[in-house]
Specification:
This protein is α+β, with helices and mostly antiparallel strands. It has 2 domains: 170 residues, no CATH class; 206 residues, Fumarylacetoacetase-like, C-terminal domain (Fumarylacetoacetate hydrolase, domain 2). The protein contains 10 helices and 19 strands. The strands form 3 sheets. Strands 1, 2, 3, 4, 5, 6, 7, 8, 11, 12, 14 and 17 form a 12-stranded mixed β-sheet that branches. It has a 5-stranded mixed β-sheet with strand order 9-19-18-15-16, with no helix packed on it. It has a two-stranded antiparallel sheet with strand order 10-13. A hairpin with a 2-residue loop joins strand 15 and strand 16. Helix 1 packs antiparallel against helix 6, helix 3 packs across helix 4 and helix 3 crosses helix 6. The radius of gyration is 22 Å and the shape is globular. The chain starts with 5 loop residues before the first helix and ends with a strand.
Length: 389
C-alpha cells in the first residue's frame, strides 16, 4: 500500500461499514483520534502569474519530473484548503487536494491527481460526503505540506500551486452553497424576552434560510432597497457531516462535521410587519458564514463557547452558548424528525440578546458598517456593509 494511504485506509473502511451513511453507523467516526489539527477553508485563486516572494528558484525537486505533468492550478475555481498556522509562510493557504496529489506523485502513484480526487475531493460538499476518509486524507496532505515548507530539499509547493500566499487567494464561505440552511427562532431566553416572547424549552421553532444568501468572510453584506431595517444576529453554525433522519440527541454529535461562525442577517420590516420570516432572512448576502470549518474534535463542548457581535467597534451581543434553550445535540435531533439532514447542510443555533431591533433607538445596519461575529474556539467572521447603489 502507498505509505500516505495507510492513515486514510482505516477511516475509509469504517465508512464502508455503514453503507447508508447514517449517524448511528458512523458514531464516533467523525471524531479525530490522533494526528495534527486541520481547519478547512474554501478559497479561490485570484489570478496573476508572477511568482510570489520567497518562491525558490531551482526546479521543483530533483528527479520529480512527474510533478511537471500535473494539471496547472486553476484560477477562480473553488478549492479546499487549510491555512498555514505559523512559520515563514504563516497565513498562506495549502491546496489540500493538490498537496495530496504531489505527495502521491512522490510515492510513484500511477495517476496521482485521480487518486487525490477520489480520496480528498476539492469541493466541500463532496468532501463532507466522503467523511471520515476525506478528513484523514486532509490531515495527511496538510502534514506533508507543512513538512515540505520547512525543508529546502522538498518539492517546491509554491511553484507547484499547492501553497498560495494569502494575498493570492480569496476566502469563500467554508460551505459556499449548503443543501439547506435550518435556523431556530429565539433560542436564547434573553433574546426571546427582548423580542417580546416568553422563554420556552418546548419544541423549537425552526425556519429555512435560502442557500443563495450565503457569503464568505471577504464578501459584503448588501442592504436591499426593499428594506430599511436590516439587523444582525451572531450565531454558532453547525455543519452536518453525515445523513441524519430521526436520530436521538445522543446520536447527534456523530453527525456533526464541524462548526463555523454565522451572521443570520434579517430584514426586520419584512419579518415583523409582513410576517415573511423566510424571505426576511434570505435576501442576497444575508448569510455570512466562515471563516473556517473547525472540525468537531476541536470543539469538545459546543455548549461552553463565548459568542460576541461587534458592529463598527461597539459590542452589541455577548453571551455563552450554554444559555441556549435547546442545545446543539437536541436541536439537531429535533430537526432530523422533520426533515432529513445531509452532508453540507447548515444548522444555525440561534442568537443571543442585543440585536439592533431591541435597542432604543433601534440600531439598524447602515452603509459603511463593519460587523464582526466571534465564537470562542471557532473563529471571527468580519463583513463590511454596503448600502444600495
Amino acid at each position: 500500500m502507498i505509505p500516505c494511504l495507510r492513515l486514510i485506509d482505516a477511516a475509509a473502511r469504517r465508512l464502508e461499514r455503514d453503507p447508508g451513511g447514517g449517524c448511528a453507523g458512523a458514531a464516533g467516526a467523525l471524531r479525530h483520534r490522533g494526528g495534527g489539527r486541520v481547519q478547512i477553508v474554501t478559497f479561490e485563486r485570484r489570478g496573476g502569474d508572477a511568482p510570489a516572494d520567497g518562491r525558490r528558484e531551482h526546479s521543483m525537486h530533483d528527479g520529480m519530473a512527474r510533478l511537471a505533468a500535473l494539471e496547472p492550478a486553476a484560477v477562480g475555481s473553488r478549492r479546499l484548503g487549510s491555512i498555514v498556522p505559523s512559520g515563514e509562510h504563516a497565513g498562506a493557504v495549502v491546496d489540500l487536494n493538490r498537496a495530496l496529489a504531489i505527495k502521491l506523485a512522490e510515492e510513484d502513484a500511477g495517476a496521482p491527481e485521480a487518486e487525490a480526487d477520489s480520496l480528498l475531493p476539492a469541493d466541500m460538499i463532496a468532501f463532507l460526503r466522503r467523511l471520515p476518509g476525506s478528513l484523514a486524507a486532509a490531515r495527511t496532505a496538510l502534514e506533508f505540506a507543512l513538512d515540505a515548507l520547512s525543508r529546502y530539499d522538498a518539492p517546491d509547493l509554491l511553484r507547484a500551486g499547492a501553497v498560495e500566499p494569502r494575498g493570492g487567494v480569496r476566502l469563500c464561505a467554508p460551505v459556499p452553497r449548503p443543501g439547506k440552511i435550518v435556523g431556530v427562532a429565539r433560542n436564547y431566553a434573553a433574546h426571546a424576552a427582548e423580542r417580546g416572547s416568553a422563554a420556552s424549552h418546548a419544541e423549537p421553532a425552526l425556519f429555512l434560510k435560502a442557500p443563495s444568501a450565503v457569503i464568505g468572510p471577504e464578501d459584503e453584506i448588501l442592504l436591499p432597497r426593499a428594506s430599511s431595517r436590516v439587523d444582525f444576529e451572531g450565531e454558532l453554525a453547525v455543519v452536518i457531516g453525515a445523513r441524519a433522519r430521526e436520530i436521538s440527541a445522543s446520536e447527534a454529535p456523530a453527525c456533526i462535521a464541524g462548526y463555523c461562525v454565522a451572521n443570520d442577517v434579517t430584514a426586520r420590516d419584512l419579518q415583523d410587519d409582513r410576517g415573511q420570516r423566510s424571505i426576511a432572512k434570505s435576501c442576497d448576502s444575508f448569510a455570512p458564514l466562515g471563516p473556517v470549518l473547525v472540525t468537531a474534535d476541536e470543539v469538545p463542548d459546543p455548549q461552553d463557547l463565548a459568542l460576541r457581535t461587534v458592529v463598527s467597534g461597539e459590542v452589541m451581543q455577548s453571551a455563552r452558548t450554554k444559555e441556549m434553550l435547546v442545545g446543539v445535540a437536541p436541536l439537531l435531533a429535533y430537526a432530523s424528525r422533520l426533515l432529513t439532514l445531509e452532508p453540507g447542510d447548515v444548522l444555525l443555533t440561534g442568537t443571543p440578546a442585543g440585536v439592533g431591533a431591541a435597542r432604543t433607538p433601534p440600531r439598524w445596519l447602515r452603509d459603511g458598517d463593519v460587523v464582526e461575529v466571534a465564537v470562542e474556539r471557532v473563529g471571527r467572521l468580519r463583513n463590511y456593509v454596503r448600502g444600495p447603489a
